[in-house]
Design brief:
The chain is mostly helical. It contains four helices and no strands.
């Protein structure tokens, strides 16, 4: 059975002795090696950063307002009509 090719890249970083010691200590507590500890921690931080920037959090009041506007949209006015007409035709 053929194996799927897995593409990986290597990333090097410099650590001062104190930082490396601290990371190694944490990795030991987590029962993993330094490479996996750093990778797992970096991926968790990446997920948090992505969620923070790609998620919109609404208050209960704003959420209810959004639902109300979706259920009962305001009438189309001249400014909205002009904006729609100004959009590129290939959209």
């Amino acid at each position: 059975m053929p194996r799927a090719a897995v593409e990986s890249t290597r990333y090097a970083m410099r650590l001062d002795a104190q930082d490396k010691s601290r990371l190694m200590r944490a990795a030991i507590y987590e029962k993993t090696d330094l490479k996996n500890f750093i990778l797992r921690s970096a991926l968790e931080a990446a997920d948090r950063a992505i969620e923070r920037h790609e998620t919109i959090r609404l208050s209960e009041r704003d959420y209810q307002r959004l639902l109300d506007l979706l259920d009962n949209p305001p009438p189309i006015n001249e400014r909205l009509l002009a904006a729609a007409k100004a959009l590129p035709k290939d959209r």
